[in-house]
Prior knowledge:
The chain is mostly helical. It is 67% helix and 0% strand. It contains 10 helices and no strands. Helix 5 runs antiparallel to helix 6. It is globular and about 45 Å long. The chain starts with a helix and ends in a 14-residue tail after the last helix.
Amino acid sequence: MVARAENRYQNALAYAERAVAHAPAGLPKAQAHAWAQLTSLAGLGREQEADTALAAAARELETDPVGFAPGRFGFDAAEYTLHQAESAIALGHHNRARSAAETSIASTAVATPGWAAAALGLAQAEAPTQPADAAQRALDVLARVPAARLRSTSRARLARLDQILAGVPATGVGDLHERVRALVPLIDNHGIAST
């Protein structure tokens, strides 16, 4: 996760390969394929291998006798489809990303961290062709989730969306830019504001 966040996709893939090799069958191996391997491969632009990782994750879920049963802790359907969406965005497949993000949104409760992540993923998928919709969706997240409860991953998604929409003359883009710029920084374990 850290390697991916720092755009060190080759390192992230090496860690993902180890996770896949050591994870037990079923949900844990599906998570290793989708959360670690798929997203790293997509970041590297290795589309065919990313598709293979996604298919492997699906096979693991299908063979898991419990799968995404309600109440099961950990990796869930919303997270699985969010990783599909974000990988599709990285590979430039915005229609596929939209579909996966919408599925993720439908699997979450509004205003939760998972919902915010999925909604911002959908906004990123919409941005190239529907910038006003993307901006409005992100503004909706900011209206529903207090800044103090907005996770660093959602803040990173907002920052990416703001960069994508920079200079686009669409309704809401300017408002979104101001709201992102005005977000109070997170404080780390040492009491230092993040940049």
